[in-house]
Amino acid sequence: MSSAKKQRVVVGLSGGVDSAVTAHLLKQQGHEVVAIFMKNWEDDDDDEYCSSRQDFLDAASVADVLGIEIEHVNFASDYKDRVFAEFLREYEAGRTPNPDVLCNAEIKFKAFLDHAMRLGAQKIATGHYARVREREGRFELLKGLDPLKDQSYFLHRLSQSQLAKTMFPVGELPKTEVRRIAAEIGLPNAKKKDSTGICFIGERPFREFLNRYLANTPGSIKDDRGRVIGEHVGLSFYTLGQRKGIGIGGLKDSKRAKGGSEHSPWFVARKDMAANTLYVVQGHDHPWLLSQTLVADDASWVAGVAPPALSIAAKTRYRQADAPCDIAPGANGVFELAFGEAQWAVTPGQSAVLYDGEVCLGGGVIAAAR
């Protein structure tokens, strides 16, 4: 690499293998690499669920092996104000937010990016499976090359100025290769399992966790014929399409839903916030679970403007194939999508993310579906 291209890059080192290999690849390319470990959650930060202490030790030992500096930065108040407060507001309104999308937009590519720039960084880098491409002075967000790990869905709110300063080295690699590199260079976390759970809060019993922050008012569970078949513990604790943990168990033959068998599984299908009623239906393909159109708001477009009204594809949840659809952009960040095939359990609060092939165009927050 020529000295002209050598840059000061600040890497968000999480303690996981993806960000560790990111730092290694950048160092190999000749960049000046500095690591930052972000601590974003302090409430009940104990070893049982929130592994930030262990994650920092893992990140520090990676930095040691790679021979780079690491700084521990606390963004907990930013996280609480910008991400967690919004997260709770959405749940209280009966929606199901996606904390990773908000966390990327507000913390990793805002608070962290600002901090890195104050440290004299020219670029930041994270271990996300996505790619950035510059074309004619504009920046595009592309899917990661490993289709099983692509994380562009969670990054769709990134702007031109954010993408201009961001690098995603592992987005060019399959996960198996990332693991192989980590083992080959002797990284201490080469076999560490991937983290799941709420962004920065970790893996924990979700209902028990939300219970501390949300009021739970029990109410009726009804079927699609309006019959009361159980009691819910609070509408915030359920999401559309949910099958497990509804708490209605086996129902007698006389209470069978129309068209379902006694043993057909029950799914959460609707929430009536005004009546504090949860509606459940039997069968995965019940009409109440299928939507042909959706309306989204709070749109964010990678290019800075909405894509033209043309046929593209969208995901209404992370783990699904791109579904062909037509977009009708509206005013004030609102847009409507119409799908050729009905989509399953389209959930208010989740993100509808648009794609043109491998290019992520942006998206918005699902407000309603029908």
Short description:
With 370 residues, this protein is of the alpha/beta class. The protein has helices spanning 17-28, 52-66, 76-92, 99-118, 160-164, 175-184, 206-211, and strands at residues 8-12, 32-39, 69-74, 123-125, 130-135, 138-143, 166-167, 219-222, 228-232, 266-272, 277-282, 290-301, 311-315, 323-329, 335-344, 351-356, 359-369. The strands form three sheets. The chain has a six-stranded antiparallel beta barrel with strand order 12-15-14-13-16-17.
Question: Which descriptors apply to this entry?
Answer:
SH3 type barrels, alpha/beta, 3 domains, Elongation Factor Tu (Ef-tu), domain 3, 370 residues, five-stranded parallel β-sheet, Rossmann fold
Describe the structure.
There is one protein chain. With 370 residues, the protein is an alpha/beta fold. It has three domains: 7-206, HUPs (Rossmann fold); 216-284, Adenine nucleotide alpha hydrolases-like domains (SH3 type barrels, Roll); 290-369, Elongation Factor Tu (Ef-tu), domain 3. 23% of the residues lie in helices and 29% in strands. It has helices at 17-28, 52-66, 76-92, 99-118, 160-164, 175-184, 206-211; strands at 8-12, 32-39, 69-74, 123-125, 130-135, 138-143, 166-167, 219-222, 228-232, 266-272, 277-282, 290-301, 311-315, 323-329, 335-344, 351-356, 359-369. It has a six-stranded antiparallel barrel. Helix 1 packs parallel to helix 2 (52-66), helix 1 crosses helix 6 and helix 3 packs antiparallel against helix 4 (99-118). The longest helix is centred in the first third of the chain and has 20 residues, at 99-118. Mean pLDDT is 90; it is low at 252-259.
